[in-house]
Amino acid sequence: MRFGINTLDDVAVTDKTVLCRIDINQPVDRKTGTLKDTTRIEACIPTLKELTNKGAKLVLLAHQGSDIEYKNFYTTEPHAAVLSRLLGKAVGFIDDVCGPAAREAIKALKSGDILLLDNVRFVSEEQTLFETTLLLSHEEQAKTLLVRKLAPLADLYICDAFAAAHRDQPSLCGFEQLLPSAMGRLFEEEFCVISGLMEKPERPCVFVLGGAKISDAFLMMSTVLRGGIADTVLTGGLVGEVLLWADGKDIGEPARAFITKEGYGSLVENGKELLSKYRDKIVRPVDFAAKVDGARVEYQLGKIPAGALVLDIGTATATAYQNSIRGAKTVFVNGPMGVFEEAPTEQGTTMIWDALGDTAAYTVIGGGDSITATRKYGKTRDISYICTGGGALIRFLTGEELPVVKALRHGSAIKQKGNYSVDHVRVTA
Ligand code: ADP
Ligand code: MG
Fold it and tell me: What is the CATH classification number for the domain harbouring 73?
């Protein structure tokens, strides 16, 4: 038991039917139907090995996005082949989530077998709760089709999807209302590392925050500054730009228009409040770079020409950030410093990642694009801990209890599989 949640040490899985939710959402090459990256699949292998070695009948639940993020979905079939290769044993796949075919396949499992179900987001109740305002309580999630159909077949629910722990959806929070539950090894590890970061970071503790998906960044900044966790926050990407805007500095009309278009205009007020409380701890860029005729051009803050769209931090800013990172004992990073996908605006990110590579500090990185940058610049081995969860990690650092953590605590208290009569609905397998 850790953090009030069962670990794999606390549950008996031999000959048991185990539903295991993993996060193996990876970029897909739609032309070939193969996966472009398998990092997340690799990360959950220890849990799956342990469960099958112990003789569980293992049923895997997962989601997979497609080309329009959060709007359409792809089959999990290619993942089964990758899982088979990594586990060195056949992983079955069925193109059904919780219908009769899936249920028959689950019933036919033998101890040590593994079956991957199709994308859980093909079931509408999973989807409609996604990034929308429609919320179902965990008790209500236990009454959704997915849970009603699969829970009766299972003895145990295990969640190893830390990367999805901020999602309030049936495949993540519903089963724990009915089945004895536990977290997998990856979940446990990620939870421990980031809890440690929150509780007793070695000092100085520096946060580096950038990127373009920044809605939770400001809440997180205020939590880590209020709690005295971060000694310094170095800001880049849109985070830095919003803070400068909040401080009355001119980042240029194109950058302001972009921030507004992305729906982050309201963060300017949050920025003002943060600066009024923690001005000395929040470091902002002093120079920027833009792409002009395909080449990098740098401007000092205050001298950004009208019409220039800044897309990276400048050399002076990056140099100062490097020194801060090299002098730190703990560094947490989320979000690149600029549009690192394009050569003229990648220098800020390469300089920061260089410092992350050679600092003696304990370094933690989270976020999909930050991980991509880490791989692009060959720093994977130099980073102390790469967290598979971006959104979940940030949400955790805002101090809010993650929905899946709450659900797992509930499920950890369930000792025996209950009676599946959910709200007068007689559930049959
Ligand atoms: P992560 O996935 O690591 O959390 P985000 O998704 O928040 O990172 O942001 C990554 C994206 O931010 C990258 O695609 C990058 O091009 C973009 N980006 C970084 N800085 C800027 C900027 N100043 N203006 C526009 N986009 C930016
Ligand atoms: Mg981000």
Answer: 3.40.50.1260
